[in-house]
Amino acid sequence: MFFVPPAGVKSAAIQNIDAGIKLIVVVTEHVPVHDVMEISEYAAERDVIMIGPTTPGIITVGEAKMGHHACRYVQSRTNRHHLAERHIII
Predict the structure, then answer these.
(1) Number of domains in the chain
(2) Is residue 1 part of a domain?
(3) At what angle do helices 33-45 and 9-18 cross, to 10 degrees?
(4) pLDDT tens per residue across all 90 residues of the chain
(5) Cα separations (Å) of 55 from 18, 72, 78?
(6) Is residue 22 part of a domain?
(7) pTM (2 d.p.)
């Protein structure tokens, strides 16, 4: 996961992919669409999973959180279904 301005996401993502990172979480908003398309293709060719852009992060309930955590989650009784909600904090 990296925090960079929208114009720097493409470069940062490619650097991370080339470094061997297999899971990339892009939390940045307003990333140019063509950059996202190029990153997605580059990642897919190298078996890299990309989550985002514009995601609050990822959560494995009871194990780990990754992102800026501007979300809350609700865990079901069966531990199989989860709800993440993004909201604006003012």
Answers:
(1) 1
(2) no
(3) 10
(4) 777 899 999 999 999 999 999 998 888 889 999 999 999 999 999 999 998 888 777 777 667 667 665 455 545 455 555 545 554 444
(5) 22, 13, 25
(6) yes
(7) 0.70
